[in-house]
Amino acid sequence: MSTHLKAFTLFAILIASIGGGSAFAQAPSQVGQMIEAIVVTTDMESYADGDTVIISGEVRELLSGTPVTLRVVAANGNIVGIEQLTVSSDKTFSIELSSGGPLWRSTGEYSVFVQYGTQSRTAETTFEFGGSSGGSTGGTSGPRIEIGSTGTMIGYTITGGNVIAINEDFASHSLIVSISTTSDGELQITLPRNVIDAKTGDSDDTFFVLIDGEEADFDESKTSTDRTLTILFPDGAEEIEIIGTFVIPEFGTIAALILVIAIISIIAVSSKTKLSILPKY
């Protein structure tokens, strides 16, 4: 082979190798390529009491009928939120949470955990929170519902379902919360101590919680006026019973007073008219 032909061949090989190397290097850096199976972020790095926390994320591939399970854990380890989120057709998900309340009292780093299907599709992120005063006197930031027909209102928040009714069982010293569910969820209920409490002497005792008759775990925070329980329940649950050592009577103070007045009135009328309320034989 002539010297000129060898030189031309080597030059052609060199050009081809440079061109091929460039094309190969660009392949894995395509714009918008997603490496992780799932990612999650918050709209800000830190929040103050009452701020809205916007959590959003994206999955690499859609799994038909599979939701994203989300947990928010406070700096002290308490779970302050649990949700199941629907993934949109564009592979994204998001939720807005209102910070604050009894479970958000701790200051520091909060963690957000998400899982999509299997354990291999998990991700987490963190944000800073300045702590919450929590509120008290039987009120959460959510709705309120009357206990039976007592006239006493009680505050709660719920995810994954709805509260249908709350009734007292005076004999069992308990409140019975009837719910309907759409998924696994969480009930956070603030119990004023003058409505229901659990005591041993002058010291606080532990409530006993049953979900459809089965003992259930729960988290609790408390003040001098109320106790707030956070109870996780499975999809399909129908009844949550909270058992203490004291619960308000079935009729309530006003109804009992009306009953006493009615009895006194009947006795007074009977004595004046000589009307006997007892049958004669």
Architecture per CATH nomenclature, i.e. the level-2 architecture of the largest domain: Sandwich
Q: Whole-number radius of gyration?
A: 31 Å
**Main beta sheet strand tally, sense and closure:** 8 strands, antiparallel
- The best one-word shape is elongated
End-to-end separation in angstroms reads 141 Å
- SS content category: alpha+beta
- CATH C-level of the largest domain: Mainly Beta
What would you say about this model in short?
The chain has 281 residues and is α+β, with helices and mostly antiparallel strands.
How would you explain this protein's 3D organization?
The chain has 281 residues and is of the alpha+beta class. It has 2 domains: 38-129, Macroglobulin (MG2) domain (Immunoglobulin-like, Sandwich); 144-251, Immunoglobulin-like (Sandwich). It is built from 2 helices and 20 strands. It has helices at residues 3-26, 252-273, and strands spanning 38-42, 46-47, 52-59, 68-73, 79-85, 92-98, 108-116, 122-129, 144-146, 153-169, 174-192, 196-197, 199-200, 203-204, 208-211, 214-215, 218-222, 226-233, 239-243, 246-247. Strands 9, 10, 11, 15, 16, 17, 18 and 19 form an 8-stranded antiparallel sheet that branches.
